[in-house]
């Protein structure tokens, strides 16, 4: 028995894997294992030896089992340590950069204007891109056959009544109709607009406008000037100057073009401002009494101002982009560059 135990210890010292251990276990404690076979010898022993032999055999069995169990634990710890070692993370290694998406620059401009005007009490509203001729033109003082319709060469969807909106101004009509001639209004509506233009560096058949409308009592052109000044300074910096030039839109009276001082040459004259020192950024004016009337507001009690920015134009001016098509060309370098510059 002593020899068997010695042999077992020797075998165990050479064991390195679970598989080898199970082989050793079978060799000693299996059905035909060395220790198991010893029990069959009991019957051949004289009676007086049977008892001590049996007791010793049991001791050996227990000892062998314990030896094998502790070897099993040893191997498990070994395997775990190896695993921990191979799976450990070196936190000092530089990480791989995960490429991230970033918002389109036009979207950024829209958000900047939205945030500012919301802080001034304006609601951001939405309108349909497929619009009625009635809202896109007629109620905005542009009846059928009006020459100013030609300036907005329109995609018609069905007959002469449904179209892809050529401006976001119909959202003015929708908002005023909802106000039922009673409620003051402050709203902006950023949205897509469509015109049958050939795409080039400054035109696109689809582009983004930001419409603004304020209706209240005692509103004057100076309120429009003040509001425009705040927007311009927010987008182009505190030293940005603004001016109005007379213009014509059928839905405003008086109508103006709004200019900002050229942020590139600070008004001295350069190629960006075509040597005028000024850049035009929107159309605007006091809401025409006919439009107020059409939409249920009494022009004797209510006045309002409206403005319409071209969002791509704002982005082009702000970021010095000279081709409008860049916004829609899905060239990731366009947005990534600007993101880095900003952040
Ligand atoms: N809707 C005009 C356009 O697309 C822009 C515009 C001008 C909007 C004057 C206005 C406004 O609200 O008052 O050319």
Overall description:
- It is a single chain.
- With 343 residues, the chain is of the alpha+beta class.
- The chain has two domains: 2-86; 105-342, BirA Bifunctional Protein, domain 2 (2-Layer Sandwich).
- It contains eleven helices and ten strands.
- The chain has helices at 2-14, 18-29, 34-39, 47-87, 105-119, 133-136, 170-179, 221-236, 289-294, 311-319, 332-342, and strands at 123-124, 130-132, 156-158, 162-164, 185-194, 206-216, 242-249, 252-261, 278-287, 303-310.
- A seven-stranded mixed beta sheet has the order 1-5-6-10-9-8-7.
- Helix 1 (2-14) packs parallel to helix 4 (47-87).
- It is rod-shaped and about 130 Å long.
- The protein starts with a helix and ends with a helix.
- The mean pLDDT is 92.
Overview features:
343 residues, alpha+beta, BirA Bifunctional Protein, domain 2, 2 domains, three-stranded antiparallel β-sheet, 42% helix, binds 3,4-dihydroxyphenylalanine
Tally of distinct domains: 2
So, the CATH homologous superfamily of the largest domain? Bira Bifunctional Protein, Domain 2
Structural class: alpha+beta
Q: What small molecules does this complex bind?
A: 3,4-dihydroxyphenylalanine
The separation of the N and C termini measures 80 Å
Quick structural overview:
It is built from eleven helices and ten strands. The protein is an alpha+beta fold and 343 residues long.
